[in-house]
Amino acid sequence: MTLHRFFIPPEWIQEKQVALSGEVAHQVRHVLRLKTGDHIVVLDDTGWECEVELRQVDRDVVGGQVVEERQSSGEPHTRINLYQAALKARKFEIVLQKGTELGIVEFVPVVCERSVVGEVSEIDAKQERWRRIIREAAEQSHRGRLPVLRPTAMFGPACQDAINSGSRVLILSEREHEVSLKQALAQGGRDDDAPAKPVSLFVGPEGGFTPEEIYLAAQYGAQPVGLGPRILRAETAGLAAASAILYELEP
Questions:
Q1: Residue in 87, 80, 83 with CA at minimum distance from that of residue 126
Q2: Is residue 166 exposed (0-12), middle (13-18) or buried (19+ Cβ within 10 Å)?
Q3: How far is the C-alpha of 78 from the C-alpha of 66, rounded, in Å?
Q4: What's the CATH code, domain 80-249?
Q5: Which of these, 13, 45, 60, 165, is most buried using a 10 Å CB contact count?
């Protein structure tokens, strides 16, 4: 039987005792209507998970006892940092939700020349809602860690940040016909006994990156790659590329 999973603050777990409050307690008590003796899984964002037997479920207290600790199996070996051009709200939320389910470990909203959004401050004001979407998707997809949602960055500084991270930096371009994503990944080789080098993936807005942005990214050290003859929507391209990267690089 699949157990309900909840990310909780580490301090809620003390010497095998778990005390739940707030939204999590409300879900356990009123939404899921769990009872004493039922089991849940709680995660403290360390990559470990605790199976908990509920010992008290009443109006004032929801608590339980840890009966098993185990390392989560839902985290990928390959770290993908997605630098996604800012999109209209619903489209960006799809990227966050499905990207979390796939295994992306970090999201960075990026403001590009063709981004149709307001001021950066308006984008960052949505981060609380976006983090909730990430958390719910991580619980549903059995992730062991919460993907990081970083503050919005302008395109140039984002390129510099990705290069400075020491990851392999790829930027999707519909104008790139010489090197495909598959070819670029094959050039890096694969060692099943060693973790794959992190990948920073840049995905453009509606209309794609401008030629000037592709040139600038290449000057920083990013590698332009193509996804094939079909032009994907901005909210689809990153998810398709992330799936291909994990398929190619995961042991």
A1: 87
A2: exposed
A3: 30
A4: 3.40.1280.10
A5: 13
Conformation bin of residue 174: beta by default, left when phi > 0, alpha when psi is -120 to 50: alpha
Beta-carbon contacts of 204 under 8 Å, excluding residues fewer than 6 positions away, are 85, 112, 114, 172, 173, 213, 234, 237
Selected residue with higher pLDDT from 172 and 192: 172
Domain ranges within the chain, ordered by starting residue: 5-71, 80-249
Rounded distance between C-alpha atoms, residue 194 and residue 207, angstroms: 37
Per-residue pLDDT of 24-38, as tens digits, reads: 999 999 999 999 999
- Where does 5-71 sit in CATH, by number? 2.40.240.20
CB 177 within 8 A of CB 224: no
pTM above 0.85, yes or no: yes
- Residues 221-244 have pLDDT tens digits of 999 999 988 889 999 999 999 999
Q: Please list, in sequence order, all residues whose beta carbon lies within 8 angstroms of the beta carbon of residue 65, skipping any fewer than 6 positions away.
A: 16, 17, 18, 52, 53, 55
Distance CA 64, CA 52 (A): 6
**Tokens 């908990």 appear where?**
52
Contact present, 241 and 201 (Cβ < 8 Å): yes
Give the whole-angstrom CA distance, residue 139 versus residue 146.
9
